[in-house]
Amino acid sequence: MADTLLEFRKISKSFPGVKALNEVDMSFRKGEVHALVGENGAGKSTLMKILCGVYQPSAGQIVYQGENVAIKNPHEAQLMGISIIFQEFSLIGHLDVVSNVFLNREPTGFGGFKNQALARKKTLEIFERMGVEMDIDRKVSELSVVEQQLVEIAKALSVTAQVLIMDEPSAPLTDKELTKLFEIIRSLREQGVTVIYISHMLEEIFEIADRVTVLKDGEVTHTDDVANMTKDLLVKKMVGREIGDIYPDLGNPSKDILLEVKDLNCGGRIEDINFILRKGEVLGLAGMVGSGRSDVVKALMGLLKKDAGTLLLEGRGIGNASMREAISNDFYYIPSDRKKEGIVGPMTIKENTTIANLRAYMKRGLINSRSERDAADGENKKLKTKTSSLEEEIRNLSGGNQQKVLLARALLTNPRVFCIVEPTRGIDVGAKHEIYKILRELCESGSSVIMVSSELPEVIGMSDRILVMNQGKVAGIVDQAGGKTTEEHVLSLAVGHEYSLHGKENA
Questions:
Q1: SS3 sequence, 87-102?
Q2: Which pLDDT score, from 0 to 100, does residue 188 have?
Q3: Cβ atoms within 10 Å of 223's Cβ, excluding its own
Q4: What is the spatial distance between Cα 407 and Cα 33, in angstroms, rounded to a whole number?
Q5: How far apart are CA 283 and CA 316, in angstroms?
Q6: Which secondary structure element, helix H or strand E, spans residue 45, and what is its range?
Q7: Could you tell me the pLDDT band of residue 170, with boundaries at 50, 70 and 90?
Q8: Phi, psi at residue 69, to the nearest 5°?
Q9: Which residue from 149, 140, 205 is spatially nearest to 172, judged by alpha carbons?
């Protein structure tokens, strides 16, 4: 086509024992937003790393601006106008915005000396092109997450990007910040920039993308205009099932109370929190950003100091003044940021799976390697973790598979109260289904789950009851026994339009 800017022709990529991509054919038009979707491990990241020169293809050809090109490294890709913004920003906190935008590429003047005035001028021009006001003299460490993301975009545009790859750009953003990001993406599209948008959030794809391509097991299975797609159809192309089949059936929790929380207060962040957790239930915590939903879990785990309040585990008073004490009381916690607070990147899958329960595999002060390996192997097989070996470093796994390893680690501790924050952030629909099944099976085995999520469909689809937070207080508790809860109902509580306790907790 005349407006085609970039093509992949029969691109294949093999690693030892794994064929990551198999004869991928794909084209991108000038000035379009092209969404790239697929399950974790489908080959999205591998394909983009080939485009950016991080990997070389095992076979196939890249055609860029009508010419066959070999992109040998990321620097060459940048010079050609191909830039990528990864989920984890590559900014230097103690440097200002200008220095980050032109890092290692500072404009030079007479005699080859760095020209700071020119760098400032160009930086201001880039932000003006983006339609963004930015204090370019501030240190990056002082910026919000969305401002840091804008610096990453400016950095990409500073090399006259014609192709901008955005990998899960919405993960750290609030709804308001995401709206601003979409405004910038639309502006770039109007200026002729091609944006490749990788996301697991289907709502975003239907709002921002012109076309969408589905990758499955390293192969292209579908490409079409977004206008011709529905969410159900897109999910079916990705994982082979309807979107309605993603969530397992709600459970049948016991009426017995496992945990009772009374008058919990933490430094003004949460106030007068009262609720119960029944045996075998999923209790969802919902609310807007800053509502205190995650703080409730942190207080239960001893990560926030409690100013007042009582915790009763099967009627017995417990303190949980520290994470260690919470774990000794059979609580377990998986945080929202699995890379920073969950996994230990350089360690193997086996080590990451067993690290929280090593005493169970020790004999006479030494670790029994066979029993440790058997335990890790058993749980990861149960969770269908995709890996070539338990000795592989966990940082090499996709996000969904890293989350499965963290779940395997939790299951080996046999938790009674299992707290998990944003269980499927950055995870594809297929892996979400498997994680939901695991959480439900955990409840069926006698544990109880407290799940914090910013995705309302997830909260409604998974929770037996929903505790809704607003400004650090409980705005309402929704019992889903009738199965007719709507997003509007939960959202109205979250924003304070309604205050209704659905059933007294002590009834």
A1: CCCCCCCCCEHHHHHC
A2: 87
A3: 15
A4: 35
A5: 21
A6: helix 44-51
A7: confident
A8: -130, 150
A9: 149
